[in-house]
């Protein structure tokens, strides 16, 4: 009977060791869960970026308005006959110490 109890205790200790320190341990599961959440967030950001890029591609394929808007915003271009005005706000002077 004593040998059986000792054997069961050893098996229990072995299982506890695997639970806390072995492959698939609780700490490893927690770490993998955190990594999974980080990857899900990155995936959502990339999917949103892809939706924006897809919308831009469709705009560029379907009309000249998108070309004009991109040229105005990104390249600073204007149409013939238009006058360009640039409004510059003066910097506030720093108070003297």
Please outline the major beta sheet: none
- Low-confidence runs of at least 5 consecutive residues: none
Mean pLDDT: 85
Count of individual helical segments: 3
Helix content: over 70%
Radius of gyration: 32 Å
Q: Based on DSSP secondary structure assignment, what is the total number of beta strands? A: 0
Q: What structural class do you assign from the helix and strand content? A: mainly alpha
Q: What is the percentage of strand-forming residues?
A: under 5%
Inertia-based shape: elongated
Pattern of helices and strands: HHH
Describe the model:
It is a single chain. This protein is mainly α. It has a domain at 21-75. The protein has 3 helices and no strands. The chain has helices at 2-21, 26-62, 64-75. Helix 2 crosses helix 3 (64-75). The mean pLDDT is 85.
Key features of this structure:
97 residues
Q: What is the topology?
A:
Layout: H1 2-21, H2 26-62, H3 64-75
Helix pairs in contact: 2-3
Brief overview:
This protein has 97 residues and is mostly helical.
């Amino acid at each position: 009977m004593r040998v059986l109890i000792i054997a069961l205790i050893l098996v229990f200790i072995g299982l506890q060791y695997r639970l806390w320190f072995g492959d698939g341990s609780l700490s490893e599961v927690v770490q993998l869960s955190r990594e999974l959440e980080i990857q899900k967030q990155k995936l959502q950001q990339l999917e949103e970026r892809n939706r924006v890029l897809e919308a831009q591609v469709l705009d560029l394929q379907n009309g000249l308005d998108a070309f004009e808007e991109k040229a105005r915003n990104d390249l600073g271009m204007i149409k013939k006959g238009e006058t360009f005005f640039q409004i510059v706000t003066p910097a506030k002077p720093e108070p003297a110490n």
